[in-house]
Design brief:
The chain has 419 residues and is mostly helical. The chain contains 19 helices and no strands. GO terms for molecular function: symporter activity.
């Protein structure tokens, strides 16, 4: 199980590192590198729009990789998704900017971002299944925390690399070439991830299923036919995770540095503090879910998000570093409480023959609304109605997740070998 957990964690951490460096770059530099002819606000919105495109692509990646994951197996699909994500990320680091190749630069940026989204869309479902289908029933929450921890660790490393570069390099050097370094590091990380993942055998649950039953010809069609309720409610339940994270980690980075005038290195350092809170809470709550169940903990996290949505921006507007750290940490604490149990909760909602497709599509559908659309809407609402309106939006999305979880059952004791 240690080897399985390591493979699940390492691959997910690398893929989320790749994904998050784009979000950080979109908030800090991509508007000037690829949309220099637009106004600062329009350039920021265009940059965040390319960030959102990746989320739109993620459900398609979940359908594509879920199809083969449910028919061929979990392991092979996870290797391909890691390759796709890593190579598309590294190519962004080599992409000429607008001043060099003109309008072709943002077009190619969008295409590579779509490939990133497709790759990550296939990653989470497979990594979660790798952990849960190997784990004993009474410890599924604990071992399912491995892919969940990949997210905060990937983001911590991504933010730390950007913090170091923005602190050590002159502003002009960071703007011209320094931001590319985190993307180019993906070449090295992919090699490490592939070496670990290639050592893992197929999961016992899928091996037992494939030995006695025929795989569904079109798994996503079976999910829509048999489990539409679980698919839509599962997607809604995880929306609060995306809203809290991408508002705090992407839009708030833009808002504090460009509107409030907080220095970029200081904001990145404060974000690192919040990410530590995310990682610790994700692990502890995931482990606790083996004793208390997944559902009640997710309900508690979503309810906390309803409250924190109103507090986030007033705390940021103080410009006090300690209170900014509290604001970001509270948002990511909410995420951790919900995100920790989700590694086991979403896979447990679906049967073995459609689990990769069902869990992956639910996870990534929630990302379209919560991660792709939320930063754009928060930016536009803040511009037109102020940050109070943005807080109402965040709390409303948390309430949506709360209502969805209330309509779902507890799954802690389910048998994952069922079809």
């Amino acid at each position: 199980m240690r080897k399985v957990a390591s493979a699940s964690f390492i691959g997910t951490a690398i893929e989320f590192y790749d994904y998050y460096i784009y979000g950080t770059a979109a908030a800090l530099v991509l508007n000037e590198a690829f949309f220099p002819s637009l106004s600062p606000l329009a350039g920021t919105l265009a940059s965040l729009a390319t960030f959102a495109i990746g989320f739109v692509a993620r459900p398609f990646g979940a359908i594509l990789f879920g199809h083969f994951g449910d028919r061929v197996g979990r392991k092979a699909v996870l290797v391909v998704s890691l390759l796709l994500m890593g190579l598309s990320t590294a190519l962004i680091g080599l992409l000429p900017d607008f001043s060099t190749i003109g309008v072709a630069a943002p077009i190619l940026l969008v295409l590579l971002r779509i490939l990133q989204g497709i790759g990550l869309g296939g990653e989470w479902g497979g990594a979660a299944l790798l952990a849960t289908e190997y784990a004993p029933r009474e410890r599924r929450g604990l071992f399912a925390s491995a892919p969940q921890l990949g997210s905060p660790v990937g983001y911590f490393v991504a933010t730390a690399v950007f913090w170091a570069l923005s602190s050590w390099l002159p502003a002009d050097a960071f703007q011209s070439w320094g931001w590319r370094v985190p993307f180019l590091l993906s070449f090295v990380l992919v090699v490490i991830g592939l070496r670990i993942r290639l050592q893992i055998a197929e999961t016992p649950a899928f091996a037992a299923f494939s030995a006695k039953a025929e795989a569904a010809k079109l798994p996503i069609a079976q999910v829509v036919r048999r489990n539409p309720r679980e698919l839509l409610l599962g997607a809604g339940a995880i929306v609060v995770v995306y809203v809290m994270f991408y508002t705090a980690a992407t839009y708030c980075l833009t808002y504090t540095t460009k509107t409030l005038g907080i220095p970029r290195p200081a904001m990145l350092a404060l974000t690192l503090v919040a990410v530590v809170v995310l990682g610790v809470s994700t692990y502890l709550v995931a482990r606790l879910s083996d004793r208390l169940g997944r559902r009640k903990l997710v309900i508690a996290g979503a309810a906390f998000g309803v409250v924190w949505g109103f507090l986030l921006f007033p705390l940021l507007d103080t410009r006090n570093y300690f209170l900014i750290a509290v604001a970001l940490s509270g948002a990511l604490l909410c995420m951790g409480i919900v995100y920790g149990p989700m590694g086991a909760y979403l896979p447990e909602l679906f049967a073995t023959d459609v689990r990769y497709s069902g869990a992956g599509v639910a996870y990534n559908l929630g990302g379209v609304l919560g991660g792709g659309v939320a930063p754009l809407l928060v930016a536009q609402i803040s511009e037109s109605a102020g940050t109070t309106g943005a807080g109402w939006f965040m709390s409303g999305m948390a309430l949506l997740s709360l209502l969805c979880v209330l309509a779902l059952p507890e799954t802690r004791d389910r048998d994952l070998t069922r079809v």
